[in-house]
Amino acid sequence: MATQPKKPPDHLVPVRLTKAQVERLHTPTRGQVFLRDSELKGFLVRVTSGGAKTFCLDKRIKGRKFRRKIGSYPDMSVDRARKIAHVWLGQIAEGKNPFEQDDDQARDGLTINTVLVDYLKARKGLRPRTIIDYKQICDKAFRDWKNKPLTSITKAMVQQRHSWLGRKSGPYYANGAMQLLRALFNYAIAVYDDAEGQPLIKLNPVMILTTTRAWFPKKRRRTVITRAQLPAWYQAVLDLKKRLKDPENPELGLDPEAALVSDYLLLVLFTGLRRREAASLRFEDIDFVDRTLTINDTKNGEPLRLPLSDFLYDLLERRLEESCGVFVFPGGGKLGHLIEPKRQVQRVIKASGVSFMLHDLRRTFITVAESLDLSHYSIKRLVNHKLTNDVTAGYVVANVGRLREPMQRITDRLLEFAEFNGRIVQFPIAAESKKLTPISPSVSRIKTTGCERLLNCAHELDIV
User: Fold this and answer.
1) Average pLDDT rounded to a whole number, residues 33-55
2) So what CATH class is 19-98?
């Protein structure tokens, strides 16, 4: 006796679909199940493990199988779904493909804006600042493309826009913008399918930059503030503290923003922190008893804990006395902290004659550390660089205590470099050694004067 072929486990025995039948359908523990209509061939309801019930039409058209969603239950009734399935089957019987137009509409709906929204939802763990950067790139670099279908963006358009961005905003920005656009196209190709299960977007036009080797070359900046430049730069930074709100109305007093940026620039130079890490520093991240600061949101995702040299301790203690908010460097924007002190940086450049970018301060810190012949591992720990492809590094236990001496030596050398042609720049430290009132009864310390530090530094070494 011949045995009947078994139905696939995800297909139930066909019945005439009714509201009662759909209501009685059980939710599978995993995957999905299908209940087909016994009267209208191809009409079915699909149930997922999440409990979602969806009406679909399965049909083979010109040798190709299509499964198209009709609507979701209970938003759409069984009778309404059946009528739509009837209409589609009638069009198919006349030799038409009712799904081709839907695919065209779906392609037209895939714009930079819509894909960016889904892309940001899918990318887990993106930092808030990164999300803001991506949105700003789309608003600035692709303002006139945001609502264009992706399929309308051609290779020639990509090449022209890349060149234009390079002239207008610089090669690094142009490359970054196109890398984001490339990622959006790759995401669209991987995620959005047509009725046949094929990608709605077939090609990534940004790949033309790789094929033609048109990406702007990556030239790593190597600029630092040299020993010869440091005294003038340092004095200009200190002079920000003396800047008046309005030089024509001195009775208005000093400019608190300029003083805040002065401390910010000093912190970046004497810690080597990245500009956003320093700008977003909170007082709760500073341990004045243990004399450390902690950066939790770092570029490589690994928290950074740094010891405070005497100079840094004094600076941060002063910030605590002068501030009333949660941030060491508060700002008036949405984030609540300092963002980009361009105006004050330009004042330092004008006053000192030293052209610099904020990241140059980090490079200066690293260069000074290297000139002291510090341990390779100590320098990497201080600046939070990953020790990749280094088996030995995996056995080195990170201890903030071991970084105290290197950090203090770097501070002392930076202070030494403030001496130029016999002239000593006055640092914001007490002119005489004195015992300060500790912030905790268990903590007491002695300030070392700038002059004492300079006398202790008998060795001179150029940075560059």
Assistant:
1) 88
2) alpha beta
Q: Which two tokens stand for residue 2?
A: 């011949």
**Lowest-confidence range among 27-36, 171-180, 268-277, 442-451?**
442-451
**In the predicted model, what is the mean pLDDT of residues 128-132?**
86
Look at residue 155 and give its three-state secondary structure.
Answer: helix
What are residue 68's DSSP bridge partners? 57
Could you tell me the CA-to-CA distances from 279 to 19, 260, 273 in Å, in that order?
60, 11, 9
Q: Are 31 and 47 in contact (CB under 8 A)?
A: no
Query: Could you tell me the fold of the domain covering 112-211?
Result: DNA polymerase; domain 1 (1.10.150)
Helix (H, G, I), strand (E, B) or coil at 148: coil
The whole-angstrom separation of Cα 306 and Cα 286 is 10
DSSP secondary structure letters along 258-324: HHHHHHHHHHHHHH---HHHHHT-BGGGEETTTTEEEE-S-TTSS-EEEEPPHHHHHHHHHHHHH--
Closest CA to 89 of 144, 140, 41, 26: 41
Q: Which CATH number fits domain 230-456: 3.40.50.720, 3.30.70.920, 1.10.10.60, 1.10.443.10?
A: 1.10.443.10
H/E element, 138:
helix 128-141
Residue 402, φ and ψ in degrees, nearest 5: -70, -15
Strands 292-295 and 286-287: antiparallel
Residue ranges of E strands in 74-145: none
